[in-house]
Structures
1.
Amino acid sequence: MNIKHTILKSVILTTAFLWIIHVQSQDGNSQILILAEEGTIHRPFVDEAEKILDSVAWGHQFKMVKLSNTELINEEYLKDFSLIIQLDYPPYMWTESAKVAFMDYIENGQGGWLGFHHATLLGDFDGYPMWDWFSKFMGGILFENYIPNFAGALVHVEKSQHPVFSGVLGDFWIDKEEWYIYNKSPRANTIVLASVDESSYDTSTSIKMGDHPVIWSNPEMKANNIYIFMGHHPGLFRNPDYKRIFINAVLWCLQNP
């Protein structure tokens, strides 16, 4: 079976939705838009992430609202948000007006962005053309392959002084992930914050990339932005380092310059 079709069928055959989280900070100014999927194998990750966000929201008066598509998203709509979290949502199936609004939002630093997992599912999938701008945003990469039977691995922290790693003592272990393979490393076009050590895989596989970043940021965009590849299953949140990085990333991306 075509690898791209396999990884996507759980997404395409179900209706995706958007979580819009209206985040009220203590000064009453911050709102966060969250994109997620429903009815897929990633739903348990989304559910667990929601619990974490609820715990963070306790001191910030969060409110969550669910939408079924991007039809409401335009430039005027996004003016109300300080952060977009692409929690588990692929870079396609957006309306044209939503794309235009998102590009303006990121390029001009209207707010921050935090993306996970499917945000780098870049290519031509199931009749949807690749969004070229989003590929450039992610470092000019193209999805090529993944490890379908998963592998545990050591993640190497490359920029330990970055706020996203506050409280993380060093390299950390991820029990299992699909570890996407791209046509090239995004390193030349991004600031790589962490990479996976492919020699540490606990599953025998020939699916390797070499230089393999898994957390990075694009400094060419005015918006504070971070992409975190790991985001397939809820067990990730049992890892205290991953949970800490998740929360740190939300807070840092909210502090848009």
Note: The chain has a mean pLDDT of 87.
2.
Amino acid sequence: MLDVVIMAAGLGTRMKSRMAKVLHAVGGRPLVAHVVRAAAALGADRLVTIVGHQAASVEAAVRHAAEGRGFSEIAFALQSEQLGTGHAVQQAAEHLAGETILVLSGDVPLLESATLRTLVDAHAMEGNAATLLSVRLADPTGYGRIVRSGSRDFERIVEHRDASEAERAIDEINAGIYAFDREKLVPALGRLSTGNEQGEYYLTDVLGLLVADGERVGVVLHVDAAELAGINTRRELAETEARLKLRTLGRLMDGGVTIVDPLNTYVDDTVEVGSDTIIHPGSMISGATVIGEGCEIGPNVQLVDARIADNVLVRAMSVVEKASIASGAMIGPFARIRPGTELGEDVHVGNFVEVKNSVLGAGAKANHLTYLGDAEVGPRSNIGAGTVTCNYDGKNKHRTTIGAEVYIGSDTMLVAPVTVGDGAKTGAGSVVTKDVPPNTLVVGVPARVIRKLERES
């Protein structure tokens, strides 16, 4: 059995932020959520997160990230005082029951599950009391150094502040990722002391204690230092965002998506895109957005938590947020689709059209200069330029209902609540304040019925 411990209690003072470090986002997810996802792929039984600063918010982020990922138990341990990494894991000890304990930092978002699998497998195969990941850095300043014995076996880790000049010349550093035998880890945690420059309980001292007890500690040297890099500053956050973006775009391109200019396209790690979709430069696609096959997006489009079906065209400078668009629809340019909107198949929403909390039936069109708010538009209806659904009376929002195959003339004002029946028409410049019967023509201010219309067969 495998338990995972994530250290996520620190504020991260170098971020210069009031928000806990692990809550800062890259690729559309909090830093800690990336770590949870990487760990979950190992099939771990139990997830224990050590929280401190903004504990409730960190817990919420972890629970959201862990939901549906197969953990049999999700627990939290509070580190009310920040007394070091060893002290942090001491708080989690009572929750641990697995044979192997994987200890991770919550600020390493590029961490791959395959890397963790290599570590855990090496730990089991070698029968180690503990196994850690290391990397070599051209400039290891600030990191704990891996000190090896004459036989090149692991001897101890010395933190930079406590290292001698000779030890600071070592370029192999501790990545802060460990696998422990629980029966060896827990007693060693109780033996930690604060005899160092920081006056903290170092988790790394557990390794030295195990070696002194004659236990074997293994080291897995990893070749990709960037993957194991923790985030400590805003600059590092931006650098990691750029790396993760290219990783995400590479995954999409490998799956059959065309990214015209990867350096100038921004897609969150959370986004799904179908094959044969083309994404043009300047587009920003984030959150839980799902895009189907054969779509064309952009340039300079923003999609946030959008659901886009197959063969949809979203033209330049359009925004779609928390809305769904059915297959064959055409959006923009310069359109804004706001939350709560559902666009049916083959709907056309053109330039400078804003749609909010509305449903447009299949084949409906609003091609330019229109506001549709809190409205329902029936299939094959055509909304003329300059139309406004006047949905707000100063106190409350009201709905407008437009039936099927309705023609709304240019510059029509629809004063909600109001219903326009199937097959009706409004003349240009009409102000509709009363329900319009089906198959009638209304004109004027206020609009009145002029005549009955013949339905086309």
Note: The chain has two domains: 2-228, 234-452.
3.
Amino acid sequence: MNKLELIQKVKEKCNLTRQEASDLVELFFSELTKAFIAGERVEIRGLCSFYIKEYESYTGRNPKTGKKVPVASKKLPFFKCGKELKERVDYPTN
């Protein structure tokens, strides 16, 4: 599912106009981004949590040349699946 499909589903399920559904989805992603910038963890109970994971700098390799190159430290968003979501996805359909 991509962003446009998500907007369409929100529109249908919540009886909203396309613009209202789009604004709602944009608001969610905007607030998620703001929380990341502030260094906060975002948890959606029963679904997942998002947090920023910090990686230290290291020496990597350029795959084309094989040369060693320094890789700067970085912060990346990390997704952790919740128990309830894991159970829903892994539920056997007999």
Note: The CA atoms of residues 11 and 18 lie 6 Å apart.
